[in-house]
Amino acid sequence: MTEDRIFFRGADCLPVVVDIIQTWTELTAKESSDIVNTAVGLVLAAGRGTRFARSDVAPRPKVIELLLGKPVISYVLETLRDAGVGRVIVVVGFGAQQVEGVLGNAVEYVRQNVQLGSGHAVKRGLNLLRGMEGALVVMCGDSPLFKADTIRAMLDEQRRSDAVVVLVSAVVEDPSGYGRILRDGKGAVLRIVEEKCADNAERAIREVNGGAYVFRAPWLASNIEQISKNDAGEYNLTDMVRIAIQQGKNVSVVRCEPDEILGINTPEDLRRAEDVLRIRSRFA
Q1: Inside any domain, residue 116
Q2: Could you tell me which residues are beta bridge partners of residue 235?
Q3: What is the pLDDT of residues 52-90, one digit of tens each?
Q4: Cβ atoms 184, 253 nearer than 8 A
Q5: Taking Cα atoms as reference points, which of 2, 236, 10 lies closest to residue 122?
Q6: Is 268 inside a domain boundary?
Q7: How many Å apart are CA 160 and CA 91, to the nearest integer?
Q8: How many CB atoms lie within 10 A of CB 18?
Q9: pTM metric for this prediction
Q10: Domain encompassing residue 244
Q11: Do 167 and 157 touch, CB atoms closer than 8 A?
Q12: Residue 9 domain-assigned?
């Protein structure tokens, strides 16, 4: 068995999510007449989530933590489906069998057995997409609050502008922990600066990278080997923005609501996401 193999698996899953995932699988199995593009989704779900560790429970991937009774990653898959993305590949690593057991045949899988960053994860996913034309939507499996309208807007912007990469940003009150988006005097993106690398002026920037991307797939496949290894020995996907700008390629940004970019890294994040979803449901 090679790492490039597509895995379809229906292993035993956590009892509390069986019925929920069966419903998700049934929904995704239906043919959808509103899929109007050839975009593919790539969801990064290989991380461990050490801040969810509990002494009385065996470690499990944070993407299958429950958010209002549903696995966190299921919200990401639903967003892609509602945005018209028909094919979805999930990159799994830590707890791969648990994730595959929860999601079953609703998606395709590729393994990232050694976690070397988001850029490396995307490179693993591209092994299943050789020769692909069109747009590739890259999302994190622990970011459940993005709206389908935001992903559709990113796809529309990629087609309109022919950008090699479209990223999503938000203006937040407290940008701590996020990469800052630097622009020139005309508003064009210059680069993304991670917080640990930012100077005081850059840290004051409140427009931050939201962590979802739409790439022109052929360009990404041709250039992903150019990602530089960071000081932690990892390959960050944000480096593709630097590469695109150095090549003189078009990079576009779509703005979203601040609550959409919340990632689930701690139990407190999970509670915040629950609050956001409850508020949304009241105004739906």
Answers
A1: yes
A2: 229
A3: 656 556 678 999 999 999 999 999 999 999 999 999 999
A4: no
A5: 236
A6: yes
A7: 29
A8: 14
A9: 0.86
A10: 15-283
A11: no
A12: no
